[in-house]
Specification:
By secondary structure, the chain is of the alpha/beta class. Helices cover about 45% and strands about 25% of the residues. The strands form two sheets. It has a five-stranded parallel β-sheet with strand order 2-1-3-6-7, sandwiched between helices. Helix 1 packs parallel to helix 5. The protein is globular.
Length: about 130
Amino acid sequence: MFEIVIATDDSDRFGPFVRRLAGEPGWTIAMVRSVEEVRRRASSAPPGLMVIDETVDGVSNIDIARDVIFANAMINLVLVNSLSAEDFHEVSEGLGVLASLPPYPGQDDASRLIEVMKGLRLGNHANGSGD
């Protein structure tokens, strides 16, 4: 089972994105609404992927990502952002962020993310470090 945790205060914005991801066989989606829950999941029940909205509980996703990396550097992170590509790269450099999503992610964004994750998972199997 491949679990994705999506951290957001506004789950309605993620509807089409979540529906597309949930359509993948063997994938489960968990929505969380607090930074505390993100931290707990990162340290005690790490998912295969965490998607973090621009802010959760008033805390920026960059700050949350730092907490996640400190708790478990093996979690793949995707951050929602409205910055330019250059500005996002500048603020997220060194965090190992896999990708970014627009503030209103849709089905196409989910499809691209699925392809990225499948590529990573296949690469892990090829390296002998599978799931």
